[in-house]
Design the sequence.
C-alpha cells in the first residue's frame, strides 16, 4: 500500500462531473502529482457517479487490466469509505468509480467506535499516507448488523463468537435512537453513521487535526438498497 504521485485530478464543476468526461479512463489512469482535490469536489464526483449508477447510466470506468498497470507500484485514492461488509454494498460500483480512486474499509455494521485498530488505523493510513481529502461513513438500508443490535438490545442472550462483540459495539447507536419517532431500524442506521462521523472528527492524533485544519472532511451517508441512491445525513 505504498503511495505514489498521480497527475492532476481533473474536475470541472458539477455539470462536468455528471458528464462522460469523468468516465474517460485518461482522467484517472496516471499517477497524481498534486494533492487530492478539495473534499467538496471529491464528494461532488462521488455523488455524480451515484446518480449515474442509480439511473442506469453507469460507465464502469477504469476496470480493465490496462487500468491496473499504472497503479501497480502505488496508489493515491481521493476518498476513504468506511462501508458495511454487506455483499450488496460495493462502493466502487455505487459511485461508478474505478481502480485506485477509493480506499475502502469494510466491516459489518460500518461502525467505528469499538471497531479497534484495524478500522481506525486503516482510516488513519488513508489520511496520513495516501492523502485522501474525504472520509465517508456509509451505512445502508436493511442492515443486518443493526437489526441484530436492535433484536438483542434488551436480551440477555449471547450471540456466538465475536458476533456478540460486534453487535454490542453497535448497540449504543440503537439506544441513542430508540425513542425517536419513525422507523426504528432507519433511525438506528442513521444514528450509527453519525456516531462514526463524530468519532472520526475527534480521533487523534491523525484525523482530528486534519479535520480542524480543513485538509479533510468527514461525512456520513446511507445507501438505499432498493433505489440505488445515496442520501447524505
Sequence:
Amino acid at each position: 500500500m505504498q503511495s505514489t504521485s498521480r497527475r492532476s485530478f481533473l474536475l470541472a464543476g458539477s455539470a462536468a462531473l455528471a458528464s462522460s468526461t469523468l468516465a474517460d479512463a485518461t482522467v484517472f489512469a496516471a499517477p497524481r502529482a498534486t494533492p487530492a482535490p478539495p473534499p467538496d469536489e471529491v464528494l461532488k464526483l462521488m455523488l455524480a457517479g451515484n446518480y449515474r449508477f442509480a439511473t442506469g447510466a453507469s460507465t464502469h470506468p477504469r476496470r480493465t487490466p490496462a487500468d491496473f498497470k499504472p497503479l501497480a507500484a502505488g496508489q493515491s485514492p481521493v476518498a476513504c469509505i468506511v462501508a458495511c461488509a454487506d455483499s450488496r454494498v460495493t462502493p466502487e460500483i455505487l459511485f461508478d468509480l474505478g481502480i485506485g480512486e477509493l480506499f475502502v474499509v469494510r466491516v459489518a455494521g460500518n461502525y467505528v467506535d469499538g471497531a479497534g485498530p484495524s478500522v481506525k488505523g486503516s482510516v488513519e493510513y488513508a489520511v496520513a499516507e495516501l492523502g485522501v481529502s474525504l472520509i465517508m461513513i456509509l451505512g445502508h438500508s436493511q442492515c443486518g448488523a443493526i437489526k441484530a443490535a436492535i433484536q438483542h438490545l434488551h436480551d440477555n442472550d449471547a450471540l456466538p463468537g465475536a458476533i456478540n462483540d460486534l453487535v454490542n459495539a453497535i448497540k449504543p447507536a440503537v439506544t441513542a435512537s430508540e425513542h425517536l419517532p419513525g422507523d426504528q431500524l432507519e433511525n438506528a442506521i442513521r444514528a450509527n453513521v453519525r456516531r462514526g462521523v463524530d468519532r472520526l472528527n475527534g480521533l487523534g492524533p491523525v484525523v482530528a487535526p486534519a479535520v480542524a485544519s480543513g485538509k479533510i472532511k468527514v461525512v456520513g451517508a446511507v445507501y438505499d438498497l432498493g433505489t440505488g441512491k445515496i442520501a447524505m445525513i
About this structure: Residues 77-232 form a domain with the Beta-carbonic Anhydrase; Chain A fold (CATH 3.40.1050.10). The two ends are 31 Å apart (CA to CA). Confidence is low (pLDDT under 50) at residues 1-32. The longest strand covers residues 134-140.
